Design the sequence.
């Protein structure tokens, strides 16, 4: 009999387990498979996916376009970044790229602009009206990829390489022809293609092979817009790398039978070598030519050499190099011509060496191994007799202050090449090292292991700024460090100092710095640097009258290379605004003709070869965002005597215009009015009312804005992310005009209220802005006039806040229940009810989760309707499984009267308590809902008193048992409660004393459970129970029959006896 009972129980348990796994687990698995909402995004134009076009997002229903309502540059920048297309240039409105689509997705994205993916942005759909056909969101991105030609001897010839995903890679030569090469040349501003080279003509590259089987028409703006196999898709090796020779490729050489640095000067242009004409060829031009050819630093024209025979182009004449020019290509000249002069005027040049001195491998130009350039070779100095007197001469000659140490024995490493000088015996007063007595040039009795070195004080330093790249300017010529006065100190001088110290560009010059002592003297000279000198020592100087410079204190310089840790560091969107500008109607701003400051004053730039890449560098340099356009013709033309014709060849990624390659050789004069112009996306620093400053900003500003502690993204304390720290705004002068800018910037409609006195609580960290005076039209709150970044007289009790028109909040209205009541939404500064049609299960679940009231709910239609008057804001809410809050659910548009009072929604959410793992809802492991997830309760101190509260709270009668040690199996997730101590009469489990939420020393093997009295009935009459009863009855019947048969046989046996 025991065997049969065991079989029955086993069968029942198996059936129960199977039904449980089918009924309870399968729906959860289905839910997980449908959590994906947005999976891909693309920009499409004429059916192709690229870096401009209408925005399309892949959802479970396929590709859908997005609505242009509330679409802005912040959203667009996220899309461009996600697609690897750089930054957004514009968001064209209307039917710019419109293609036919059945439905436009109306979800609104509220990106800050810093997100990596569009689906990281907050989304709203509740109350959003349907989108008109054709009103689709579009974006034009500025591609962040770069293109270059390498190993060809110049920027316009070489192996084609593309920077993609942070790596430079080549192009395979399959199908490579002049049409493809034309696109490369045009993109680089190198004219047209003369030759499309194959088979690694310029050497094999390394890294990825990015493109193969290109099939350009020749009209594309970027080579990656041509049809191809796709990024990284190829069947090639680097021996098949493609190359290009463009028409503007330039090269320089000396032609001579036997000498390297003497001969006929020839230039490679338009795919042909030709001679250079010698008029006027002044000393500076000859010096630059010799330096470029590696033939010393001076040269002479040789007029005694007979003219050459043979025919060749004579490409260029009238070359006039300037001190700022770093190569012959930057020197102005007459335009390129096939016959620029007669054959008798071809230039024959002899270059010569003036000995040069340098220090190497010491970490700066003023420390290292001593090397001399002589007879076309760098060589070293032997340390025999080497002491501070020789070292002083070296430091003085290099403009490096005084010698601190004379190093011997190759302490900066062994040099190579000749050992030029040995046994030097300087007095210390010589102006050049080779004027000291020695054994003579190239005469020595030592090896490179005895190479001499020097550590100099340096001529200039920046002191007291918290780092080597900011502080008071001080110089040293042997008498100690002396401050430089702020009288007539110029930005070009600051540039030379920053460059000499390896600190980048000059960011700011500050005067009026008090001297350390009243008796302290300033340097008795004024420096008049042009900006291109190799060091401050080499700048022109003017002695101050009477040896005393007029000043109001010492001068202080902040360089761009300074770290954020310095107290004197500023964002370098301010960098060098004094040296390039955009002017329109006489004012400097973020649109207008491009002007550059040279030694001759402000000059406009020529529009020839001016393009969007150059324009983007200018906009970035001025803190004006990105370039939107480069208007041609007389768009902003103002009168100027001369137009600067230097051509800039920027890639678009440079920080400053002068970081770009420049050519001027052969560039023709610019026609009057043909000036380069730019329209940038930002608003920059226009003149401020009330004499205040504009903290700089642009549409691509790295700063961020948020509203916090207001219950939603559109209400709260205003905070700005600046220099890596979130800080608040002071409420002095804070009003609706300021608040309007905040709301518009966040895509939150208009301001309903500008709160003061820390209405949303006191913030922490810096107070970034004070005394804001916005007009209400600014794009960013930091573009409003203010006291300046960090300038204030406030405390956090004065933090400013905002309530915007699109601030949304949700609540349940009930007299005594937290998770049941009338559903109300805060919209347009007013609480109003929500209509219940159609309110399906998914919608109710989203609402309850949103309110932290479990994960399911029901509509209660039996509650009498309310009589008070209030808005009934929204109806027809249809949440999707992918929506994480009510704000993301589609609905009818917001209306004051969306339904009748009888249709207001009264919702009852499931309690925050449940039992799991048992054989009914009234027995099992105790689980509670907290902070958006289910977790368990530890069995420490768990008894019938605690179990009684759980059973009563769930309506499951009285507690029969309070088992611990995970009697119904261990749970997962958090262990929310521990050390719960109830008296047995509390209304809910969380009314009992317990440790803090989430604070426990337990594992899930200690999960608490209960078995309530109401669990007996469902246990008996459940399907498995009924089956067991039937099987039990059958067994009992079988036993009766067996018993009857047994008794009958026993009776027959006794009768027979």
Sequence:
């Amino acid at each position: 009999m025991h065997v049969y009972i065991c079989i029955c129980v086993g069968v029942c348990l198996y059936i129960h387990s199977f039904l449980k796994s089918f009924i309870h687990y399968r729906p959860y698995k289905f839910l997980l498979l449908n959590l994906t909402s947005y999976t891909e995004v693309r920009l499409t134009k004429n059916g192709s996916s690229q870096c401009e076009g209408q925005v399309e997002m892949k959802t479970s229903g396929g590709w859908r376009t997005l609505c242009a309502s509330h679409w802005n540059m912040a959203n667009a920048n996220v899309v461009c970044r996600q697609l690897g297309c750089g930054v957004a240039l514009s968001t064209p409105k209307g039917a710019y790229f419109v293609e036919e689509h059945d439905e436009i997705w109306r979800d609104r994205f509220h990106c800050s602009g810093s997100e990596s993916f569009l689906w990281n942005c907050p989304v709203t759909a509740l109350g959003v009206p349907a989108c008109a056909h054709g009103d689709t969101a579009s974006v034009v991105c500025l591609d962040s990829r770069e293109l270059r030609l390498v190993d060809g001897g110049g920027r316009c010839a070489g192996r084609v390489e593309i920077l993609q995903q942070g790596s430079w890679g080549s192009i395979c030569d399959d199908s490579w022809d002049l049409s493809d090469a034309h696109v490369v040349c045009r993109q680089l501003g190198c004219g047209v293609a003369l030759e499309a080279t194959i088979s690694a003509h310029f050497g094999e590259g390394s890294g990825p092979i990015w493109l193969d089987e290109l099939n350009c028409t020749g009209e594309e703006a970027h080579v990656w817009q041509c049809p191809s196999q796709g990024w990284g898709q190829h069947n090639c090796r680097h021996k098949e790398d493609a190359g290009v020779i463009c028409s503007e490729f330039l090269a320089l050489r000396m032609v001579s039978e036997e000498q390297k640095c003497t001969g006929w000067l020839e230039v490679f242009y338009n795919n042909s070598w030709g001679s250079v004409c010698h008029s006027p060829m002044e000393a500076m031009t000859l010096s630059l030519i010799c330096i470029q050819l590696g033939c010393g630093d001076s040269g002479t024209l040789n007029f005694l050499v007979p003219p050459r025979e043979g025919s060749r182009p004579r490409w260029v004449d009238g070359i006039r190099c300037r001190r700022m020019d770093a190569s012959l290509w930057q020197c102005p000249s007459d335009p390129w011509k096939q016959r620029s002069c007669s054959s008798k005027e071809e230039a024959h040049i002899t270059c010569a060496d003036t000995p040069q001195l340098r220090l190497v491998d010491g970490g700066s130009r003023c420390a290292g191994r001593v090397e001399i350039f002589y007879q076309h070779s760098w060589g070293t100095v032997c340390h025999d007799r080497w002491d501070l007197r020789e070292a002083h001469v070296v430091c003085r000659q290099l403009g490096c202050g005084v010698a601190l140490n004379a190093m011997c024995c190759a302490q900066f490493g062994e040099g190579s090449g000749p050992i030029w000088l040995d046994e030097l015996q300087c007095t210390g007063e010589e102006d050049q090292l080779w004027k000291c007595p020695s054994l003579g040039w190239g005469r020595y009795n030592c090896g490179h292991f005895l190479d001499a070195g020097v550590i100099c004080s340096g001529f200039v330093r920046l002191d007291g700024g918290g780092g080597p790249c900011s502080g008071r300017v001080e110089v040293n010529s042997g008498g100690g460090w002396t401050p430089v006065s702020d009288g007539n100190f110029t930005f070009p001088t600051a540039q030379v100092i920053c460059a000499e110290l390896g600190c980048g560009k000059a960011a700011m010059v500050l005067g009026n710095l008090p001297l350390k002592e009243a008796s302290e003297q300033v340097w008795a000279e004024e420096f008049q640097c042009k900006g291109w000198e190799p060091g401050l020592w080499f700048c022109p100087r003017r002695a101050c009258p009477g040896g005393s410079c007029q000043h109001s204190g010492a001068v202080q310089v902040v360089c761009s290379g300074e770290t954020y840790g310095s107290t004197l560091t500023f964002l370098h969107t301010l960098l060098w605004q004094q040296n390039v500008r955009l002017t329109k109607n006489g004012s400097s701003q973020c649109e207008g003709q491009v002007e550059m400051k040279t030694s001759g004053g402000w000059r406009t730039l020529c529009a020839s070869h001016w393009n969007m890449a150059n324009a983007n560098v200018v906009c970035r340099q001025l803190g004006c965002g990105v370039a939107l356009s480069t208007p041609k013709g007389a768009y902003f033309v103002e009168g100027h005597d001369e137009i600067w014709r230097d051509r800039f060849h920027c890639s678009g990624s440079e920080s400053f215009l002068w970081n770009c390659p420049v050519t001027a050789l052969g560039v023709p004069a610019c026609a009057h009015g043909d000036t380069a112009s730019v329209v940038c996306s930002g608003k920059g620093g226009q003149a401020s009312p009330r004499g205040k400053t504009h903290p700089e900003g642009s549409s691509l500003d790295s700063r961020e804005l948020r509203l916090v502690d207001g219950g939603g993204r559109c209400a709260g304390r205003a905070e700005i992310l600046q220099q890596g720290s979130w800080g608040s705004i002071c409420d002095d002068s804070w009003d609706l005009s300021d608040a309007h800018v905040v709301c518009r910037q966040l895509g939150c409609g208009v301001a309903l209220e500008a709160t003061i006195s820390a209405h949303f609580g006191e913030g922490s960290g810096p107070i970034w802005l004070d005394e804001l005076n916005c007009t209400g039209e600014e794009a960013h709150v930091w573009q409003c006039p203010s006291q300046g970044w960090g300038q204030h007289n406030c405390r956090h009790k004065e933090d400013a806040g905002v309530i915007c028109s699109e601030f949304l909040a949700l609540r349940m209205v009930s007299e005594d229940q937290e998770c049941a009541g009338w559903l109300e939404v805060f919209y347009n500064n007013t609480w109003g009810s929500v209509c219940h049609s159609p309110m399906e299960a998914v919608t109710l679940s989203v609402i309850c989760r949103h309110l932290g009231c479990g994960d399911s709910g029901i509509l209660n239609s039996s509650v009498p309707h309310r009589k008070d008057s209030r808005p009934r804001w929204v109806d027809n809410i249809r949440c999707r499984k992918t929506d994480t809050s009510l704000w993301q659910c589609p609905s009818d548009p917001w209306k004051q009267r969306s339904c009748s009072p009888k249709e207001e929604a009264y919702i009852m959410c499931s309690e925050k308590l449940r039992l799991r793992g048992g054989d009914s809802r009234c027995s099992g492991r105790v689980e509670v809902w907290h902070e958006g997830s289910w977790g368990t309760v530890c069995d420490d101190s768990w008894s019938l008193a605690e179990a009684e509260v759980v059973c009563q709270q769930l309506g499951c009668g009285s507690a029969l048992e309070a088992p611990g040690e995970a009697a119904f199996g261990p749970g997962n997730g958090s262990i929310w409660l521990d050390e719960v101590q109830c008296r047995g009469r509390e209304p809910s489990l969380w009314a009992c004393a317990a440790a803090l939420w989430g604070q426990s020393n337990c594992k899930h093997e200690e999960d608490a459970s209960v078995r309530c009295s109401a669990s007996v009935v469902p246990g008996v009459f459940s399907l498995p129970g009924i089956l067991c009863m039937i099987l039990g009855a059958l067994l009992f019947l079988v036993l009766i029959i067996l018993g009857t048969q047994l008794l009958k046989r026993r009776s027959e046996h006794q009768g027979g006896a």
Summary: The chain is about 15% helix and 30% strand. Residues 1-36, 562-578, 684-701, 1017-1024 have pLDDT under 50 and may be disordered. The longest strand covers residues 146-154.
